Structure to design on (654 residues):
């Protein structure tokens, strides 16, 4: 990770974008412009240097390019091979079936994660399921148990919705002291996805839920048979039985041919390779919702059914492992999201949290969705500590680790880490993870 | 906007939602279920399906679903099948099909850590999570072993084998005697030490404020 932060975002700078912006965002931008001038007081360095030599004519200008194949699935440039999903090298599993891989957020502009880079979490590896033989059943406390084939599911009226998707364990290696180097390692169990499918409520209404039904068990067809108990209110509100992501059918590692999507909730409840839904009048209390995916609390207790992912943000650029190329202008940018609604604001600090200024939110700002924030920064070459702090539409303010320590037991394998992430920048421009240090 | 069957909505939403927070920017609400489970923000949502409700589901009988119907409602054991297995039989199953990954006497092996001990450890910072220390209900072991174990051949054990290996794990954790035999009734009756160890999600549990200057 040696890229200069402002080169990797691939987005327009805040000052250039005019069309369609909401008045609120315009005033915010003006605020940023004035505050940046106050803070930096200097000219932007970019574009002021003379070119060192006449431009060479590259050989590609003299050669015909590659022809268009008859049929092909396009792949990224060979020069982008470093942008890859990676298993963690911080928390090492001794097997590779119940394991995870992480999204390279430091290379992601915008709010959508390409399908080949969406994080993975499996409990028994990736099954390859033939959609022609796959079946989904709804049964239990329903008027009529139903079987659905893929050809049935795609005929229903569909919805496409943008949502963040985050593992409850995102950040679990980095609570009290830095273990990870990059934002891919600290926050890469996070992706932004446009999900397409049929609303679960459509299928449940067709099956006819017994009025005594209060919960539904969602179960996968993989060999873990991973399953979770879900309150019917969530099922009927916004759960999607999804068969497509980002404009194509699900990838095998993300649940092909069909999965549940429970927007704003911890990833593992969005059961992949969905084969069975059973309606009942109480939760099942399976291993997955007692011994796993619960949170240690003081006094030896465990917090259960903590499924909502609370508001969180992280600066993805500059972020851990990067090297700034000397003093001057940098665009601080990152992602914010909340399972409790929309992102209302993101504040950025460059002095370790002593002073904060409001960043620009780059629209669209959507419910339970990644939101891109940006703030100009004139680095003076002195040590700095970069932080971001999200505020959501419920008014919830992203906490620090110290805030969370007041109520939770932060020891061991601890989930639901939504605390502020500090990155330090030293005088050489090296950006380092400073969780628990700053 | 959407045509839905009133009785279903009454059953599933209106009777159970408890509004718990302020109105959100998008018009949605933070809500909890009647049993206090936080739902996060709920609708209305900006993107909705068309109001038409075609019916493409194919009726199927519970009998035809039975081969997939493997879940156990663990607090009362609903779904536990007929069958039985002893601690001694469980050791034989374990030493044949489980030991390679979990190690001798379930103390941890090549791929996974211990499944024994940890009872009483949760009040210390060295929490040891095992079926004995963590599971609030003994039928969880049956449900999980049947659906997911052994990892290289899940759903291959007979009901008697699952009862037996469950009995063996409970015995290694000191929760049933060496002569114990587990079946639907005896397994459900086992009192687990972490039975009352869980709290329903009570977040938000932080009160951070939006300080802008002279903070810390």
């Amino acid at each position: 990770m040696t890229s200069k932060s402002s080169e990797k975002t691939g987005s327009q700078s805040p000052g250039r974008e005019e069309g369609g912006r909401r008045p609120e965002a315009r005033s915010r931008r003006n605020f940023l412009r004035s505050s940046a001038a106050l803070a930096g007081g200097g000219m932007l360095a970019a574009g002021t240097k003379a070119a060192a030599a006449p431009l060479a004519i590259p050989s590609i200008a003299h050669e015909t390019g590659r022809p268009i194949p008859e049929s092909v699935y396009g792949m990224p440039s060979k020069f982008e091979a470093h942008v890859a999903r990676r298993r963690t090298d911080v928390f090492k599993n001794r097997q590779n079936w119940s394991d995870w891989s992480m999204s390279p957020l430091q290379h992601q502009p915008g709010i959508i994660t390409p399908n080949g880079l969406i994080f993975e979490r499996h409990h028994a590896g990736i099954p390859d399921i033939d959609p022609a033989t796959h079946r989904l059943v709804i049964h239990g406390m329903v008027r009529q148990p139903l079987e659905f084939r893929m050809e049935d599911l795609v005929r229903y009226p569909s919805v496409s919705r943008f949502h963040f998707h985050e593992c409850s364990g995102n950040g679990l290696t980095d609570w009290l002291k830095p273990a990870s180097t990059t934002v891919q390692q600290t926050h890469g169990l996070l992706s932004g996805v446009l999900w397409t499918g049929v609303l679960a409520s459509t299928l449940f209404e067709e099956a006819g839920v017994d009025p005594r039904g209060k919960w539904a068990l969602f179960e996968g067809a993989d060999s873990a048979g991973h399953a979770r108990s879900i309150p019917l209110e969530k099922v009927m509100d916004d759960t999607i039985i999804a068969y497509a992501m980002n404009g194509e059918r699900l990838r095998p590692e993300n649940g092909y041919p069909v999965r549940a999507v429970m927007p704003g909730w911890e990833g593992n409840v969005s059961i992949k390779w969905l084969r069975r839904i059973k309606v009942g009048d109480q939760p099942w209390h399976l291993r997955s919702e007692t011994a796993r995916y619960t949170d240690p609390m003081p006094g030896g207790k465990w917090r259960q059914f903590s499924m909502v992912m609370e508001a969180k943000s992280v600066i993805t650029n500059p972020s851990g492992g990067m090297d700034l190329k000397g003093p001057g202008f940098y665009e601080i940018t990152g992602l914010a999201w909340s399972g409790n609604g929309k992102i209302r604001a993101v504040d950025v600090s460059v002095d370790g949290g002593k002073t904060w200024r409001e960043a620009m939110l780059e629209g669209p700002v959507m419910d339970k969705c990644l939101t891109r924030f940006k703030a100009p920064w004139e680095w003076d070459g002195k040590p700095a500590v970069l932080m971001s702090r999200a505020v959501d539409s419920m008014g919830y303010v992203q906490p620090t680790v110290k805030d969370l320590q007041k109520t939770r037991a932060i020891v061991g394998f601890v989930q639901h880490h939504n605390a502020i992430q500090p990155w330090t920048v030293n005088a050489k421009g090296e950006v380092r993870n400073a969780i628990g240090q700053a | 906007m959407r045509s839905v069957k009133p009785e279903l909505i009454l059953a599933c939403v209106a009777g159970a939602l408890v509004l718990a927070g302020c109105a959100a920017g998008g018009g949605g609400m933070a809500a909890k279920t009647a049993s206090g489970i936080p739902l996060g923000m709920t609708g209305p949502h900006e993107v909705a399906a068309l109001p038409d409700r075609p019916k493409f589901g194919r009726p199927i009988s519970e009998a035809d679903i039975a081969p997939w119907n493997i879940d156990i409602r663990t607090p009362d054991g609903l779904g536990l099948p007929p069958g039985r297995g002893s601690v001694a039989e469980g050791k034989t199953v374990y030493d044949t099909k489980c030991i390679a990954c979990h190690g001798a006497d379930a103390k941890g092996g090549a791929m996974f850590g211990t499944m024994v001990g940890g009872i009483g450890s949760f009040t210390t910072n060295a929490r040891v999570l095992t079926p004995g220390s963590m599971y609030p209900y003994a039928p969880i072991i049956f449900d999980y072993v049947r659906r997911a174990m052994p990892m290289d051949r899940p759903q291959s054990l007979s009901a008697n084998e699952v009862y037996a290996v469950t009995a063996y794990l409970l015995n290694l954790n000191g929760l049933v005697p060496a002569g114990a035999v587990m079946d639907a009734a005896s397994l459900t009756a086992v009192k687990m030490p972490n039975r009352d160890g869980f709290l329903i999600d009570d977040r938000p549990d932080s009160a951070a404020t939006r300080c802008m200057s002279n903070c810390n």
The helical segments of chain B are 6-14, 62-65, 87-97, 99-102, 131-134, 139-148, 159-172, 184-189.
